[in-house]
Amino acid sequence: MKILLTGATGYIGKRLLPKLVDMGCDIVCGVRDKRKFHPGDSIKDRIQVIELDLIDKSTFINLPKDIDIAYYLVHSMSSSKNFEQLEKISAINFREEIHKTNVKQVIYLSGIVNAQTLSNHLNSRKNVEMELSKGKYALTTVRAGIIIGSGSASFEIIRDLVEKLPIMIAPKWLKTKCQPIGISDVIKILTGIMNNHEVFNKSFDIGGPDILTYKEMLLKFASVRGLKRYIGIVPVMTPKLSSYWLFFITSTSYNLAKSLVDSMKVEVIAQNDDLNQLLKIQPLSYTASIQQAFKKIEQNEILSSWKDSTISGRLNFKISDYINVPQFGCYQDIRKKKVVDLTSCIDKIWTIGGETGWYYANWLWNLRGVIDKFVGGVGLRRGRTNLNDIHPGDTLDFWRVIYASRTEKRLLLFAEMKLPGEAWLEFRIQDGFLVQTATFRPKGLLGRTYWYLGRPFHEIIFKGLIQELTKPNTRS
């Protein structure tokens, strides 16, 4: 049985893929950018990867004709102003092109849309379902609310709020009820309905056993973490102020915060549990889902994170667009230093950022992150998904990983901070030397002024950084 998995680089797709491979399925992963896709060594030789952009119908030429089942896991959290139109076009293109294959079932993961008034985000998902339902295949739609798991947007935002704020003065949408579900249960359901004729041409709401307000979710999360938290609700906080509140306190981007606030005003409660009964699944409680997520975090086994999606940054681009660092019209800070301990140097480069920090003058890096956050950028709060591994497409504080090869001893980062231009930071070891290059392509006079005003700080942080990276580890 051949399965098309769209959204294979997304949070759900990365969790679903290994399960499908273990089931013995022949998997075709449709990804927008192959450079962002890094399946584990245990499965990469057992899958087919094609570049498939649902907005661009010409890319469907890569789609095999012998597809039996397709997962539609492509979603947007308003990464662009016209995201609703783009999602509709994607669904129409997918429906028309998938008809040219042998597909029998399409599985779509949507959001719970039972409320009379929906957010733009949820309304868009409902419209996508309507477009997909016009196909000649059997459509199975699974509608979920808040998904709880290590690396999920909901989990990480709740974690930020609870762990950073002993006292919260929160917006009134914290009184809204929802029905969270654990990521492990979502994956069980998505695999259980595959090729299951009892769910053909049907839609289902899915949720865990608990119906909670967002305030109750925060307090239960705090209880699991052994923290005492106090939450007061302000009824007059506007949606815009609520979005800024979420943006400044958590690691979310402003666009995502705005979409979340818009959706959090809508109750997302499942109206039936037919699918749980049909598949004989007993979903985990909200508390158990949190505990399971922290086990993964403690073991450094986070398979996917919403932060590595382009919606977590300010740009939506293909990595290949930025892998060739420009030189014409650019300013550069190039430093070169002898590497005494090669293994130590590479290890330091590969663990840079996140909890490790930037080795020298971290307070300046943190200050730059705070400034970036205040001007609407991503700041430093995204951190990194894995403490030791880096792959193209990953986030690394306010950078995006463009290229990473330990074999070639090269790491290339692209800045997602707010800048009057574009910036790259590259580490490359050549002929026994570490070459550290910061490149800035300014936009107009403001960009050039920005570069020269920042030169004194570059002298401090870049000089100290290369010294720390090339410093050998002390051994007893």
Label the overall shape.
globular
Overall mean pLDDT score?
A: 85
| Number of beta-strand segments | 19
Unreliable sequence segments: 311-315
User: Beta-sheet strand percentage?
Assistant: 15-25%
Q: Which structural category do the helix and sheet elements fall into?
A: alpha/beta
Query: Helical element count?
Result: 13
* Share of helix, binned: 25-40%
How can the largest sheet be summarized? 7 strands, parallel
Strand order of the largest sheet: 3-2-1-4-5-6-11
Query: Span from first to last CA?
Result: 57 Å
Rounded to the nearest angstrom, the radius of gyration is 23 Å
Structural write-up:
It is a single chain. By secondary structure, the chain is an alpha/beta fold. It is built from 13 helices and 19 strands. The protein has helices at 11-22, 83-98, 120-132, 153-164, 183-192, 214-224, 239-249, 254-264, 274-279, 286-298, 342-350, 362-374, 444-470; strands spanning 2-6, 26-31, 47-51, 69-72, 105-111, 138-144, 147-148, 167-171, 177-178, 181-182, 202-206, 212-213, 230-234, 331-338, 395-396, 399-405, 410-415, 421-430, 433-442. It has a seven-stranded parallel beta sheet with strand order 3-2-1-4-5-6-11, sandwiched between helices. The longest helix is centred in the last third of the chain and has 27 residues, at 444-470. It is globular, with a radius of gyration of 23 Å. 44% of the residues are buried.
